[in-house]
Specification:
Radius of gyration: 21 Å
CATH class of the largest domain: Alpha Beta
Number of strands: 7
CATH architecture of the largest domain: 3-Layer(aba) Sandwich
Distance between the termini: 19 Å
Order of helices and strands: EHEEHEHEEEHHHH
CATH topology of the largest domain: Rossmann fold
Number of helices: 7
Strand content: 5-15%
Shape: elongated
């Protein structure tokens, strides 16, 4: 289950992750389970983890340490999920400056993997990605045979200064 952390404020992120009880706030008309409960022992993907507030960092740290969540307006409840996180920020640098907690970083960085931007990859790898995505789209749109890529288009794609990652 995936959550884009940078797209939400604290209250919305908290209610989406942990759920809430009926009456906890104005629009809480029914009890709602959060993403963490819905994951049921699976994996929760937190995208843009470097953008969360110190309040949410503390709340996530509690989940990681105690294996327990507290729905908004509710009582604590045990949980068992894995977290996979991504960010475009340099978290150790943020920890050194203060906006990101070292203890949360160490809990999350069990396996830390930096992915090079597409522009930093070799031409052969970029070609492989292009053909992979074309094959994926061919299957999606039920196209029996792909006619290929014109040399001008391939040259343009290979020279394109990709700004991010896949």
């Amino acid at each position: 289950m995936a959550i884009n952390c940078s797209a939400m404020g604290d209250q919305l992120l908290e209610s989406r992750l942990f759920g809430y009880k009926k009456g906890a706030f104005t629009d809480a008309v029914v009890d709602t389970l959060g993403v963490i409960v819905h994951a049921k022992g699976g994996t929760v993907f937190l995208d843009e983890i470097g953008d969360i507030s110190t309040y949410m960092q503390q709340a996530l740290l509690r989940v990681l340490q105690e294996k327990e969540i507290t729905p908004v307006g509710g009582t604590p409840r045990k949980t068992n999920v894995r977290f996979v996180c991504a960010t475009n920020k340099e978290l150790p640098g943020l920890c050194g400056q203060g906006p990101f907690r070292w203890d949360l970083y160490y809990r999350l960085a069990v396996i830390d993997r930096a992915l090079p931007a597409v522009r930093e990859r070799g031409i052969e790898e970029v070609k492989q990605m292009i053909y992979f995505f074309l094959k994926l789209k061919r299957k999606l749109f039920n196209v029996p045979k792909f006619p290929g890529i014109h040399k001008i288009v391939m040259d343009w794609l290979l020279s394109y200064p990709f700004q991010g990652n896949v």
